[in-house]
Amino acid sequence: MRNSIGENGAKYLAEGISKRVTLTSLDLNLKKNSIGENGAKYLGEGISKCATLTSLILNLISSIGDNGAKYLGEGLSKCFTLTSLDLNLMSNRISENGAKYLGEGISKCVTLTSLNLDLANNSISENGAKYLGEGISKCLTLTSLNLNLNYNNIGNNGAKYLGKGISKCVTLTSLNLDLGSNSIGQNGIRIIKKLVIKAKRLMQYYIQSN
Question: What is the Cα–Cα distance from 135 to 166, expressed in whole angstroms?
Fold first, then answer.
């Protein structure tokens, strides 16, 4: 968890992971290890080599920035067999560009059924929310979605974009959406609720906005 392994440590980890060609499940907790964007690059490259990966849990609070998010997104885009993704990237200085790369990566995970994405305390803004919504909308087999976007200043428009994306996930049965501290008014909440209930099989949902 906190070992200060840095980018070189991340490189060696990634090299080891890339050689496990039959790996199906990976749980990697690198919280507060200062691996930076280069470390994220190595991890993205390592993960992309795991052609049989079905479950990935990655906990990374390390100021990887937009470039780091790009490298991770590129790695995820190669994970064609992934069904479960748990990605904690809170407090990583990710803006709308980083959210775009992550959204693009997630959109390529076409077999995904469960997505837990924590981007709290970044700065993705309404455009970043739009990119995430577009990425999530391509996950046509998704049944469970947990999304934490606390403190990202996405506003009413960002909430609307997310709602549009989620509304296209017609196999979704469970939704937990945390949008606290994002300057979203009551009108924004009404819009997103109206949109998300269009996910026809949605059996339970929870939306937090303040």
Answer: 10
Beta bridge partner(s), residue 114: 84, 144
* Domains of the chain with bracketed CATH: 6-208 (3.80.10.10)
Does pTM top 0.85 for this prediction? yes
Q: What is the CA radius of gyration of the chain?
A: 16
Query: Can you read off the two tokens belonging to residue 190?
Result: 């009404």
Tell me which residue of 169, 151, 31 sits closest to 88, measured CA to CA.
Answer: 31
> Does the structure show a pLDDT above 80 at 129?
yes
Task: Report d(CA 93, CA 121) in Å as an integer.
Answer: 8
Burial status of residue 167 (CB atoms within 10 A of its CB: 0-12, 13-18, 19 or more): buried
DSSP 17-75: HHT-TT--EEEEE-TT---HHHHHHHHHHHHHT-TT--EEEEE--S--HHHHHHHHHHH
For residue range 83-96, list pLDDT tens digits in order: 999 999 999 999 99
Q: Which residue has the tokens 């996405």?
A: 154
CA pair distance 70, 134, nearest whole angstrom = 16
